[in-house]
Amino acid sequence: MAKIVITEFMDDDAVAAMSQRYDTYYDQGLADRQDEIAPLIADAAALIVRNRTKVTAELLDAAPGLKCVGRLGVGLDNIDLEACRARGVTVYPATGANNLCVAEYVIANAMTLLRGAYQSQDAMLCGEWPRQSLIGNEMAGRVMGLVGFGGIAREVAVRASVLGMQVVAYDPYCLADDPGWQIARNVSLDGVLEYADVVSLHVPLTDDTRHMIDESALAKMKSGSIIINSSRGGIIDEEALASALSDRRLAGAALDVFETEPLTAEAAMKFSGLNNIVLTPHIAGVTHESNVRVSAVTAQTVLAHLEDNGEQAPQQ
What we know:
Layout: E1 3-6, H1 12-19, E2 23-26, H2 37-40, E3 46-49, H3 57-61, E4 68-71, H4 81-86, E5 90-93, H5 99-115, H6 121-125, E6 143-147, H7 151-162, E7 166-170, E8 185-186, H8 189-195, E9 198-201, H9 215-220, E10 226-229, H10 238-246, E11 252-255, H11 265-268, E12 277-279, H12 288-308
Parallel strand pairs: 1-2, 1-3, 3-4, 4-5, 6-7, 6-9, 7-8, 9-10, 10-11, 11-12
């Protein structure tokens, strides 16, 4: 009977559905014990991961019978896609299943940072009344700039438009006649940086996008603008961003992803003392609702792949 190994957290109902049909090994802490994964997948037909499990060529070599990898999310930079192709291993991201929650994360942080009133609690509890210093800005009438214009970015564009924002976007892979341009104006990367009040990043981490937002790019952004990264760590040069925030050239930033994950105390030092940044631990794409959707989609695609490839399920 085929074996499925799951190395990170997954909705219990989806795990149960797979367990009813195949031998399923589930340990959501395996990503923290990478060296234990290879022996567990030696006889596995499917591997299911999130973003922390490193699916390398060496790991794939330990699983000669592996047929597919299910990704509980959409980013694939932790999976060696070339090695998977060479070994005939199909990779299934849960495309679209967490678009809504990431879009809501972007809008929530845009509101928080533009309004600027998200760190008043300590002062209030001390009896202060810092009203004048906390008068911020509205979303309406401002410009949302999107770097990358895939499914998540389009959900952001819809919500930003409803809130009265203009939307501009940059995506060199999006055709000029794509219907998505009905809700956003197609501009260059420099156009997004120079025109937008809120810049939100929605690109994968590749050699071309690593440190796409560097010191030079940040210098092109409007004074008083904010930037939000819910895509992948490494897109922004964090040292350059910390400097721009410290100098108040930017009004604020929200980071859900980092060059080092989990973010260590040493790596976080660059942000120490900044009161215009929101840091979250890679949770933009995870809500209770999205976890159910992502898990269900992943379970369905993995089960279908195993069945289509003749992997034996137990007799009912």
